[in-house]
Structure formats: structure tokens, C-alpha cells
Amino acid sequence: MLLVPCPNCGPRNSSDLHYVGEAQARPNPSEATPTEWREYLYMEDNPAGWLRENWYCRSGCRQFFTLERHTGSNEFRNPPMPGNKVGGKA
Amino acid sequence: MANAPTTFESPVVTDYSTRPTNASSDVTLTDESSTSKILIRAGSETAAAQQLGVPFGSARQSGTVLVSGQRPSEWLILGSAEETDAFVAALDLTGHVSVVDHTHSRALFKLSGVGSKGTLEKICGLDWDDAITPDGAVVSASVAKANCDIVRFDADEPGYLLACDRSFGQYLFDAILDAGDEFGINVG
Hints:
The structure holds two protein chains of two kinds.
Chain A: E1 3-6, E2 10-13, E3 18-22, H1 34-42, E4 50-56, E5 64-70, E6 76-77, E7 88-89
Antiparallel strand pairs in A: 1-2, 3-4, 4-5, 5-6
Chain B: E1 28-31, E2 36-42, H1 47-52, E3 58-62, E4 65-71, E5 74-79, H2 81-89, E6 97-101, E7 106-112, H3 116-123, E8 138-143, E9 146-152, E10 159-165, H4 169-179, E11 186-187
Parallel strand pairs in B: 1-11
Antiparallel strand pairs in B: 1-7, 2-5, 2-6, 3-4, 4-5, 7-10, 8-9, 9-10
């Protein structure tokens, strides 16, 4: 089981989230060439090491966020901490 | 909200009246789907968000209405139709705010009793310890593989409100009954 640190919900089973893909800068739509769009949409670096990637918390807060994960060890580097993980009466 | 049907049909259609009841049971599952459920989405800069005043992950009882901060910038208001309407009418809805009546599109169950925590632990992977989910805590999670919004709502005994999509209502009701079988769960 992979525990993914959601910045809103805290550590969650990866089955509660959706892996979106590598985090890449989106090309400027008014200037990008077809080759750049293809690179952005379909090509991934897929390194054996640290990788910035996007996740979607589909069962929890339903927010997109970016994490740094080591693709070899599945370790997360400097995960964002949840602002209000523990609930309770307001 | 003005166009909402006046009659409510619960997604739980099975008749449990002939189901044997357990006199020594310490957990009860009740179908509360007829409760009015108003979903409010409001940007953090809006007056409505300030009025609601409940942060993500927690709930507050406002009179007889329960205000639940179930997602960032998203609140679920639970109560009777009159009370929730009055609550929403008192909000300042200027700016980036939307109000949607989810009464007929969501199922709502109450799982209460000493055995409710044990029942929930069998079908949901979250930590239900009092330190993590105290009374008033709000979480969203997969319960028996159905996405649910859950409010820890204790009265005299531990209790949880579970809201899921209407189409999962009957399935989830039966899944909770199945999980609570070892605690002698009763249908309320």
C-alpha cells in the first residue's frame, strides 16, 4: 500500500487518489507548436529517481496537488502538511 | 430549491420490518435520507464563507442545523427543509457562491451506538480513533468502496452521519448492515 500525503486530508491510501501524471509546465496555447503539445501531452521523463507529479484526491478533498516522489523507493520528499487534518467541532 | 419535489423517496427500498432485532445490540443504522441537504460552495473571500465560519474538516451545530465543512470552500447544510431554507436565506450570497439542493441526490445514514466505530473500521480504511476523528470531525473517504462524506456526530453515544450518492444508497445500507452483523446491528 502506498500512503500518499494529501495536503488537505493527510496520509491516504493511494487507492483513494488518482495519479494524474508528471507535473510539467503547460505550453502557451497561442505559441506552442504541435511538437511541443505532443511532448506535453504524451511524452514523460519517467526517471528512476525524484519526480514531481500531480495527484487528485478523489475520495477526500477532491483537490489537485503536486508532490515529489522517488520512483524507486516511493518516498515522498517534503510533503505539504495538511492545514487542518484533525477535525472537531468548530 | 423552490422546484424541489415535495415528496421524498428514499434510495433504501428494502423492507427491514421483518428483520430480527437484537435486544442486546449496541449499534443502530438509521436511514436519514429525507433530511434536507444543501450544498454551498463559496470562495474563501466571500461573505458567505465568513458567515459559515466552519473550517474544512469540522462541523458545527447552528441551532438545529448542522453545518459541515466537507471540502475546502464547500459546506453541507443538514436539517429540516424549513430550517435549512431559513439558514441559507440568512446568508449573504453575493460573489462566487453557489447553493444546490442535494436532498434527492444523496443518501444519508446515521450509524450510532458503541459498536458504530467498530462497524465503520471494517469497511473504511481511515483511522477512527477519537484523537484523529473526535466528535464534530468531518472526512470524506471510501466506505465499502463508495465515496462518502462522513460527520462524527455524537449524541448520548458515538455516532456517524454518512452521505453518499443516491445510487449507492441501498448498496451502502446493506454493506453497513453486513459489517455490523457481528455487533448485532439493528435497523432504526
